[in-house]
User: What shape does this take?
Amino acid sequence: MKILWINEKAEFVGGCESFVANTAALLEKNGTENILLYSVEGWTEPRFVKNFSQSYPIVRPLRQIKEIEPDIIYLHQLTNKKFMREILQSNIPVVIFYHDHQLFCLREHKYKAITHKTCQKPIGLRCYPCLGFVNKTDKFPYLRLRTLYSVRKQQKMQKKAQAFVVASQYMKKHLIAHGYPPSKIFVVPLYSVAHLDESLQFPQNGKLLFVGQILRGKGVGVLLQALKKLPDNITCTFCGSGDQQRKFIK
Assistant: This one.
């Protein structure tokens, strides 16, 4: 079998990229040919692309798909709407893995802007009082408005895929709430490649390490609150960056 993987990043940015690289490597060992298409923007990490037999930047999706002739397209993170449309127009079965809530929340995080409580409802007019439609950007004026129309339009287009993969029953419920057919949704729990030895002795030096994005959605706020309840000799080093880094570092 030949699988064409499509992901915006060709580097280890987060959990999505780790899943893509690790799964491709495991499938390669079982005789599956894995080819990667990635965005021309950003860095191409050799350690990442080595998990694929071939890797190319996305330039002309339809032409590239025709030349590669994959049996299936496994699509992960891709923000380019034009490319997404072309890929879904190909005659090759497309499977989309939803790693986050980007397409199911105007804020993209699925928790309320003011109370920070988890939202379990589908997108609707309630999103506007939540201020979820106001998003930050890196370019002037550093804000953009995200509408229900634009998100629903994206959902309608992506529903043309042959199947959808999520990592939990919780995410499956969100897809169903947004009109995705249950029969096309498959739950594939995330996994860890490395297995810890049961006899492993953890050091008792009172030092903790957090590695990841400095974002509320990654549990940084909960971790900081927990640290306040621990003895003063317990310390935690944070390794990472994120949009809310300044908020948490005081």
